[in-house]
């Protein structure tokens, strides 16, 4: 059986027509790429808007990234910049003295925006099951000493214990018995720290140095 050998295909259309088809194909591809890019950008914008509406905290609201506590010298960070200047100065002095003894004081939370504090309160209610229980650990924005810039949370544990022992020399005091990390400027340097409160639900007016 013989086979018919077909000649190689040759596009007999005029060159101008072939070019037009090529340009059309390129235009379709470009339009598809633009549409895909627009979809991606719209998705990112939507996610950012949803995050904003949901009240997700960020650095501008005082968030300190988990696992990345601040050095007390990072005063340009909102969490430190928003602190009362006297508290910030006392903390810097204490940190310098602690460093001479091999203790590094880091800040895990300082000033917080009202929105950030409200988000923490909402999270605590979900975690602990009721507002009453959540109040033992988180104060509402209108009562939070973090929102007013008068409180800091510190790490690591050896820094907390060092300040519990020596903090009164700088006016820095542990405030709540259940929070060894929470300190406020609650006495004058060299003074006596106030009696510990059981937890953050204690409604007494804050002691100030």
UniProtKB/TrEMBL annotation:
InterPro entries: DD-CPase-like (IPR052179), VanY-like_core_dom (IPR003709), Zn_M74/Hedgehog-like (IPR009045). Residues 83-161 form the D-alanyl-D-alanine carboxypeptidase-like core domain. One of its GO terms (biological process) is proteolysis. Pfam families: VanY. Gene3D superfamilies: 3.30.1380.10. One of its GO terms (molecular function) is peptidase activity. This is M15 family metallopeptidase. It comes from Microbacterium caowuchunii.
């Amino acid at each position: 059986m013989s086979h018919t050998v077909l000649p190689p295909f040759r596009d007999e259309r005029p060159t101008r027509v072939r070019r037009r088809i090529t340009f059309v194909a390129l235009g379709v591809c470009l339009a598809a790429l633009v549409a895909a890019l627009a979809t991606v950008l719209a998705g990112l914008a939507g996610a950012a808007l949803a995050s904003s509406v949901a009240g997700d905290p960020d650095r501008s609201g005082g968030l300190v990234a988990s696992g990345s506590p601040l050095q007390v010298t990072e005063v340009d960070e909102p969490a430190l910049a928003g602190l009362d200047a006297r508290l910030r100065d006392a903390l810097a002095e204490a940190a310098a003295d602690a460093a001479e003894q091999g203790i590094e004081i880091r800040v895990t939370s300082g000033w917080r925006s009202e929105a950030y504090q409200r988000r923490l309160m909402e999270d605590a209610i979900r975690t602990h099951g009721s507002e009453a229980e959540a109040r033992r650990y988180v104060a509402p924005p209108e009562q939070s000493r973090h929102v007013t810039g008068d409180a800091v949370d510190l790490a690591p544990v050896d820094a907390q214990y060092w300040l519990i022992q020596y903090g009164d020399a700088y006016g820095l005091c542990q405030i709540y018995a259940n929070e060894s990390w929470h300190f406020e400027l609650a006495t004058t340097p060299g003074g006596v720290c106030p009696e510990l409160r059981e937890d953050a639900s204690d409604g007494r007016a804050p002691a100030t140095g």
